[in-house]
Specification:
Elements: H1 6-14, H2 52-71, H3 73-83, H4 86-90, H5 98-102, H6 110-122, E1 130-135, H7 140-152, E2 161-169, H8 173-186, E3 190-203, E4 206-212, H9 215-220, E5 233-243, E6 249-259, E7 268-278, H10 310-313, E8 318-319, H11 320-334
Parallel strand pairs: 1-2, 4-8
Antiparallel strand pairs: 2-7, 3-4, 3-5, 5-6, 6-7
Amino acid sequence: MENLYQDELYELCNTKYVTNIEKEGEEIIETIRSVDSFTQNEPLFMPPNLSNEILVDDLVEEFWKNSKIFDDEATFLLASLQSATNEQLKNWQLWKNYYRQSLNWNETSRLTELDLVNYLIRTTNRRPSVLHINCKRLIETDISNTIQKCLTFHPMSGENSLFRVSIKTDMPLQQLLGQLEQLKRNTFGFKVQKGLVTAVLKQDNISHRFSTEDYASYSNYEYLLALPGMCEMSCSVRFKCIIDNNPNVVVNVVFHNEPSRGLLKGRRVRVIDIEQIVRAKKRTYVTFAPKDQHIIHEFEIPEDSLFIPLSRSKKQTIDLLKYMENLKMTIETTK
């Protein structure tokens, strides 16, 4: 064996082993040896008049095409929703972690994310009862279009459901207010209700809470959040949007302006949450009971008692606009 050439050793390893030449035609069980695959060195069967390069290129292209479809997380989630049964859709345990998973989506595109969002908006009867996802590829024009689609869709289902999509953006609050004003002009019956601004500032392990309902005036002071003393303040503006002829659908739009964490500490992060809530049609229930069960008891509680009324139990908040105005005046005087 030591005097054999390399080619002879290769032929020996790839030659079919036969115990006896005379018994070659008999049916015997052959012991498999640990050698390479018997198809590894065989020529590829080619149809006549077909080039090897064309066949290989087609196979590679088809392989990468299928790989990209499988790697796209938005397409994978859309396929999972379309193939899921009603029992699986109602099981919220299967869908509650998709927001954390969507934060790490890297293979999606704007078109696949739009397909996923549009499917969830339209098919209210074929979606989980609660689902929250994050989309990285959507742009600013998609925000107003998504709000309009959420409100103008008339659901046929009688079940309650909630779908929320988070979109990271760089646009300020004034630009979002401009988009909402444009929706008022272009969409019949569009209304914005209950605008509220809340903020939390942490200083020396103490949380200071702020609030105001004048979100339009707050948008003029939003740039102050980038100052060094305000970098730890987190602000959120919440809007409730409705349409008169579609009472079963409510859209909440929340604009977050928060400090960044981790490697980007010191910067601001803006995220817009669009939340579509589909409510079941109201049903009237009539109950009958004896009159003696409908007695109302009225009593007074003395002021010196240990009971704390609910009106006093609320934690007091600071006026955000006054705080911003004082901060602006302080900056102007120090210049």
